[in-house]
TrEMBL record:
Pfam families hit by this protein: Peptidase_M16, Peptidase_M16_C
Gene Ontology cellular-component terms listed: mitochondrion
Organism field: Sagittarius serpentarius
Segments forming domain Peptidase M16 C-terminal: 191-367
Protein name per the record: QCR2 protein
Residue ranges annotated for the Peptidase M16 N-terminal domain, each copy included: 41-186
Length: 367
């Protein structure tokens, strides 16, 4: 026989004054420091077991010229090339050995180098992050071997039709700067040299154009890391021409059954009152997450387009802000035979809202 016993814990009356048990320390306040050389340091200590640290640099594609288009794209792929302090092999295996990750991505205005790891290994991964951002060598043979990857990276990205639409949208909207593509033009693949990479880094990777940001790390530790950035070039670096909005139209025929279309006008620059207003208007028109297999009936754009067609479609407001300009409008996806009526209906809905067909309740919900 097996004998089972059950011991019931005695009931303990909860005290109204009992303190809550804190399983983890409270998140500290955001700390920001600006060094004399212009480098900005920001940290948020949340006592997470994982730390994330990023170097943000004003070095996007808008800072390219007609003679070095695609440099930022190649630089984005060159994060694991040999540096003055570590080989390509050491960077890759060193980060993998501690379960960390290094990622690089860029927009038209900024390039971001980001590492993530357990907080006990911050010093280890930061060594590689510093090497990648402050001491690249760009050996000619490594740069040459890397360039075919531009085609692969571009082909993978352009499998998403929205990437091509947004690239063409900026090319049509702007005359310079923001018109530069995020992806290397086909005619420059294989022609970008290590000297061009060095020149781009020298002119853009300067202290006043950088910010070192950490989450799950002490501010004092991050300031110690920042000391290694003191040997980089100081100053504001190269200046970019102000983006000039001109408007225009680009149509690309590809024979697909679906039509992707974006119609925009100039929006607001980052930090401006217009940018805030356009952000609210974007959510008034419809920019929130969609419910799977839902009709998105709360979106004003969807409501307007649904009255014009019974065929499947998608319509959402589009809003992007840059340091000196912005774009605002709408993006639609529809079947080719119905593209005209969908675009026209979305445009009419924008006009109706511009003429005052929104309520205070709509604005409150959008905020």
């Amino acid at each position: 026989k097996r004998l089972y016993s059950l011991k019931v814990a005695p009931k303990v009356a909860a005290s109204a004054t009992a303190e809550r048990v804190k399983l983890s320390p409270e998140t500290e306040d955001l700390e920001i420091t600006k060094l004399p050389n212009g480098l900005v340091i920001a940290s948020l200590e949340n006592f997470s077991p994982a730390s994330r640290i990023g170097v943000f640099i004003k070095a996007g594609s808008r800072y390219e010229t007609t003679s070095n288009l695609g440099t930022a794209h190649l630089l984005r792929l060159a994060s694991n090339l040999t540096t003055k302090g570590a080989s390509s092999f050491r960077i890759t295996r060193g980060i993998e050995a501690v379960g960390g990750s290094l990622s690089v991505y860029s927009t038209r205005e900024k390039m971001t180098y980001s590492v993530e790891c357990l907080r006990d290994y911050v010093d280890t991964v930061m060594e590689y992050l510093l090497n990648v951002t402050t001491a690249p060598e760009f050996r000619p043979w490594e740069v040459t071997d890397l360039q075919p990857q531009l085609k692969v990276d571009k082909a993978i990205a352009f499998q998403n039709p929205q990437v091509g639409v947004l690239e063409n949208l900026h090319a049509a909207a702007y005359k310079n700067a923001l018109a530069n593509p995020l992806y290397c033009p086909d005619y420059t693949i294989g022609k970008i040299t290590s000297e061009q990479l060095h020149h781009f880094v020298q002119n853009n990777f300067t202290s006043a154009r950088m910010a070192l940001v950490g989450i799950g790390v002490k501010h004092s530790d991050l300031k110690q890391v920042a000391e290694h950035f003191l040997n980089i070039r100081s100053g504001a670096g190269i200046s970019s021409a102000k983006a000039v909005y001109r408007g225009g139209e680009i149509r690309e025929q590809n024979g697909d059954s679906l039509v992707h279309a974006a119609i925009v006008t100039e929006g607001g620059a980052v930090g401006s009152a217009e940018a805030n207003a356009f952000s609210v208007l974007q959510h008034v028109l419809g920019a929130g997450p969609l419910i799977k297999r839902g009709s998105n009936v709360t979106s004003k754009l969807s409501q307007g387009v649904a009255k014009a067609t019974t065929q499947p479609f998608d319509a959402s407001a589009f809003n992007v802000n840059y340091s000196d300009s912005g774009l605002f409008g709408f993006y639609t996806i529809s079947q080719a035979p119905n593209a005209g009526e969908v675009i026209k209906a979305a445009l009419n809905q924008i006009k109706a809202v511009a003429q005052g067909s929104i309520t205070d309740d709509d604005v409150r919900k959008a905020k």
